[in-house]
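User: Good morning. I'm curious how zinc ion would be positioned relative to this chain. Could you predict the structure with it bound?
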Amino acid sequence: MTTQYPENENPSEPWLTYKRALVVMAHPDDAEFGCGGTLAKLVNNGMELGYVVCTNGNKGSNDLTMTSDRLAVIREDEQRGACSVIGAKDVTFLGYGDGELEASVELIGKIVREIRKFKPDIVICQDPWRGRHNHRDHRNAGQATFDAVYPYARDHLHFPEQLEEGLETHKVLEIYATMTENPDVIVDISDCIHDKINALKEHKSQIGDPDALEQRILSNTSELAESHGFEYAEGFKRHTFSFGRAPTPKTQA
Ligand SMILES: [Zn+2]
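Assistant: Good morning! Here's the predicted structure, ligand included:
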């Protein structure tokens, strides 16, 4: 017998169907640059949001007096500040060095562990197949996350030690890929644009002049929004998995 469950009929408003989202990104600040408005909107609409950040971003500086060790600490701190602006429930740092990410079985296993712990309905990650050159860490984080969702998190013979620790297999229903070209889901972030900008302003080591950043974000997000009748928007490429499980029931009033 097949289980009937509500389809995500409004992909631009996933909170109408889903309860939990996990965002998996290569570097501190990628989530906010790629989709910070959408993340704030998911939380505002009652979804639980978790973060996984694969690298510590310890090469992202043009300050010649900066060291990698010092930068890693600064960037973790900045990411926690941004998560708090967005309203994320928790953040896990996998601790890889900036520029050193491989789409390896080891990385896949670490992402699978977070998926099995957090049990998201949707996962948001970087599009590993965008049509022009993509930062190597973005490509590898995206690829490992797609692989983690299917088949690794789903199948019990992958990483059985995690099941022995008490975790269970988990079926993610959809991936929303950000930092993509030709997006097929457009989310209206007009009411969350300042959450995105304020979260980005937490990444002080990365953004330079905060006013210039604000203008850049307003301009970029309005360009995509224009043809869809919104003021500000973010786009995603949506991948669905027909695993036949019901979304996590909404328990909040
Ligand atoms: Zn990045």
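Residues 26 and 181 are 18 Å apart (CA to CA). The pocket of zinc ion is lined by residues 26-27, 30, 135, 138 (CB under 6 Å).
Let me know if you'd like a different ligand tried.
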